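Justification of resources, computational component.

The compute hours requested in this renewal are based largely on the per-chain cost of generating structure records like the one below. Each record pairs the submitted sequence with a full structure-token output. That output is archived, and it is also reused by downstream analysis tasks.
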Amino acid sequence: MKNLKKKFTNKFIGFICKKWLLIKHYLREEKRLNKLVAKEISEVNIQRIKILQVTAIVINVVLIFSFTYLFNPVTVMEEKWRNSVIIVHLVSVAVVALISLLLIINRKKANPLLGARIIEHLIIVYVVSFGLAIIFVDLPRTTNIVPFLIVCVVISAFVLRRPVCVVTQYLISYLIFFNIISTNETDSMALITNCVNGSVFVIIGIFIGIILWQTERNNLLQKRKILEQQNKLESMAYYDDLTGLINRRKWIELLNQEFERMKRYNHKSSILLLDIDNFKAINDQFGHPAGDRILQEIALRVKKQLRSCDRIGRWGGEEFIVLLVETPLEKGLDVGEKLRNEIENLTVSFESHRIMVTLSIGVSSLDCEKEFFTSYKEADQALYLAKQNGRNRVECYPQDTLIPVT
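The structure output for this chain reads:
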């Protein structure tokens, strides 16, 4: 019996520990997800606060006008009540105006996230204070606590906050509400009713706040996931997995954009066709992983030598293509020679091997009066000449394009 009791106790403790670990993991994951969307939700809150400001100003102005010109108090108590209500709404207008000013100032800051969070807290304090002030003013005439219900709904609907913050803000609001009611309400039945109703309003507000937070957070995470998938698909469609360079399709797209600029500004550019010498022999001798490493190293080195406006892409196999923007043929040859020299001095380390590589480069001019296919054929022909003339060379086509200076 003693062993059975000990076994049961151990199982129960194990069950409790397992559940606690699950809860701990869940809370940690919730905290991580909440942090991921903190910035976006602050931006959503700012947009909602702007709507709330306009709504509050309209309500305040209408009620100030109504109590000032349309309500005629009969007794001294009614006049005192009316003046108190007007003062509360005037203070509300001033606070909303101050928050509007803070929003304008915060928008001009380099990092507005901290300011946005401060404004969120101010809005919550404002809404709670305004609702409780109305209840305090109304208590001598009525036990109506509808303003507290409105407060609970408004701060849930207009300011999205993490569940822990939601619970905290509602508990604090209820404690203040309970203190006001218990201090000023003399009827015990009305006091109990108002306290119970107030607690119901708080529970409703907490559930609304948590549901809206979870919904908005899930929507933002879903949008982020869709955007990541779109970026991944775009990367697969336009970028070479091995070298990280743009592929032929994306390069042609960028070339077409450059053609439009060339037509507008009437400038010339150059095309470089790069081919790794004896690449098949390298693959046969050292293996395809070595060839992949060489492609990556060459792509990295060549890209570093180019300007940010130039476009380099993997054309296929061991070939790369470069668009030198606003670069005439003479300068294109100079760039080609610089690239050839850079790779000639490159030694690629792979496993225990040190592999020397060279490039053959064909250069042709590109202008708006000539189709790309014609320029590409010329660059390809120049590349063929570089191979024929011994490799590790830069050639242009046709050969008589450049006239020597005498």
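The mean pLDDT is 87. The first strand starts at residue 269 and ends at 276.
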